[in-house]
Recover the amino acids of this structure.
């Protein structure tokens, strides 16, 4: 027991050290952890590390994906869903098939089904890509696409892996596999929606922020475990629950609850991610031992892994190029609708009603709710057009999407779930590990310098962010003025001399009134910002930063007991 505690403490220190010293030497922390793990695994007196892959697939991935989904800007996820779904489903399936043919060719007596199984293991990208990309000035559209891909492609790969394993021992049915995949996704989405909604219903009634955060730790498992029990995708269920929470939490949970969530979940995510990459490296010794025992050596396996990595990059490039071309053409088609949509936005009630009746309602007269929804949809479409025009996808973005497709912890964990009677099992596990290792070291080690070389200057983004904050301040000022105009008891300004001479009881009453007024203004500003978020009229990251500042001001005001400074 003592040895286990010591190992845990050392692991935490190593994870923290990698986060501190990695940026100083220009290497991402996950790469440092994998390297440290590999070196440690080769030290004779350090015992062999073997971790049940179910701990990663069922115990680590759901909270990690849930946390990422909560913090992801859902408006950008919606806008990029076409690209995200293509990369998460179509590309994973295509990569699995191509790699399956390759593995069946280079590994004697493996068979196509087991080759596709290994292809499914190697196909999903890892979320570590976005953590490296975010440190550069690359387009936020690319970050949104990579974030969304890393949330969903694990589920596709694991469902495909399960299907390939079944097909290896029975007659394969293409439509049966499609049906299984559709069932796994549909049931998981339904469970995720219900759990996400119930999560906020329950937590909105819990006053203690610490208890509230403790309840949030159970949410990804409450979503994933029932989904897996029904043979659906627990990871998709956890992601959907996280997206629902991220959308609704700012309107349902108070700022101190959300601040507690962000801080504690940030720590959990940091430790779990670090532990996964450290374990990846530590498991190397036992995997090499298995390959040397069952095969001639690791040299041929490394060549197979290198060939597989090259194939994954080529297949990804072959898919991304036409994908970006299609997205560009789609954005151009939408841009041609801008003038017409702008006319709808500026139209009076009668014109908007006639347009809505023509396009949506037939002979039914539109209600006020219909007109409100129509107006919201028009605003959202105009915001989408502006979003796509402001961040076109060119060769720089395409290069980033291709080279940022790194493999990692999911690949290693999924490989170890292969049944014990799998042909050449030790070789397949080692190949999966080697592909992930090569990917992290080669792509992860070069993507930072590559993006710094090809990305536009960071000053351009900083200037755009300043302009965006100025527009947001206009929205907040309008919300504050509207709230103050509707206040039946307007604020009474007092000089320092009046405050110093006031009676203590009178001063406390005045401070209390000012606090209530300021809290009312903050709530109005938050509602205006959240409405703007739902319309998509501002950059998601800048808006989120302003919302955090608003939350911090409200928390400080409530703790101080007086008006904000």
């Amino acid at each position: 027991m003592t040895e286990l505690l010591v190992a845990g403490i050392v692991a935490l220190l190593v994870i923290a050290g990698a986060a501190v010293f990695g940026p100083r030497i220009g290497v991402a922390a996950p790469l440092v952890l994998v390297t440290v793990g590999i070196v440690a695994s080769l030290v004779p007196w350090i015992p062999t590390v073997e971790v049940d892959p179910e701990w990663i697939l069922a115990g680590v991935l759901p909270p990690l994906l849930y946390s990422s989904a909560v913090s992801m800007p859902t408006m950008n996820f919606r806008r990029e869903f076409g690209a995200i779904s293509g990369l998460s489903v179509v590309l994973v399936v295509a990569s699995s098939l191509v790699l399956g043919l390759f593995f069946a060719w280079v590994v004697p007596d493996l068979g196509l089904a087991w080759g596709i199984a290994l292809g499914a293991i190697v196909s999903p990208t890892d979320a570590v890509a976005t953590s490296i990309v975010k440190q550069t000035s690359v387009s936020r559209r690319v970050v949104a696409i990579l974030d969304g891909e890393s949330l969903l492609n694990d589920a596709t790969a694991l469902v495909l892996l399960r299907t390939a394993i079944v097909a290896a021992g029975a007659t394969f049915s293409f439509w049966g596999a499609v049906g299984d995949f559709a069932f796994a996704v549909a049931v998981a989405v339904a469970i995720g929606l219900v759990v996400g909604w119930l999560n906020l219903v329950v937590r909105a009634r819990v006053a203690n922020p610490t208890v509230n955060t403790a309840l949030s730790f159970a949410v990804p498992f409450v979503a994933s475990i029932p989904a897996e029990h029904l043979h659906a995708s627990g990871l998709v269920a956890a992601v959907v629950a996280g997206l629902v929470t991220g959308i609704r939490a700012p309107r349902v949970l108070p700022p101190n609850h959300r601040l507690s969530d962000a801080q504690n979940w940030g720590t959990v995510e940091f430790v779990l991610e670090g532990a996964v990459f450290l374990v990846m490296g530590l498991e190397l010794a036992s995997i090499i031992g298995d390959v040397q025992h069952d095969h001639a050596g690791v040299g041929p396996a490394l060549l197979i892994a290198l060939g597989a990595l090259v194939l994954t990059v080529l297949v990804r490039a072959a898919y991304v190029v036409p994908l970006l071309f299609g997205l560009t053409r789609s954005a151009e088609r939408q841009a041609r609708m801008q003038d017409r949509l702008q006319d709808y936005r500026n139209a009076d009630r009668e014109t908007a009603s006639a347009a809505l009746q023509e396009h949506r309602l037939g002979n039914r007269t539109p209600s006020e709710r219909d007109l409100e929804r129509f107006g919201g949809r028009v605003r959202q479409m105009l915001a989408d057009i502006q979003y796509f025009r402001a961040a076109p996808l060119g060769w720089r973005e395409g290069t980033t999407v291709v080279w940022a497709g790194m493999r990692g912890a999911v690949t290693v964990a999924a490989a170890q779930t292969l049944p014990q009677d799998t042909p050449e099992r030790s070789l397949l596990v080692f190949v999966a590990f080697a592909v992930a290792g090569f990917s992290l070291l080669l792509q992860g080690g070069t993507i930072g310098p590559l993006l710094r070389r090809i990305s536009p200057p960071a000053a351009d983004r900083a200037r755009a962010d300043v302009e965006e904050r100025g527009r947001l301040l206009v929205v907040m000022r309008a919300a504050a003025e509207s709230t103050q105009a509707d206040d039946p008891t307007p604020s009474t300004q007092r000089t320092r001399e009046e405050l110093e001479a006031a009676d203590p009881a009178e001063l406390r009453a005045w401070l209390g009134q000012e606090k209530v007024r300021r809290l009312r203004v903050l709530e109005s500003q938050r509602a205006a910002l959240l409405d703007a978020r739902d319309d998509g009229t501002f950059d998601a990251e800048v808006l989120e930063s302003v919302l955090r500042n608003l939350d911090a001001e409200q928390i400080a005001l409530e703790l101080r007991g007086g008006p904000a400074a």
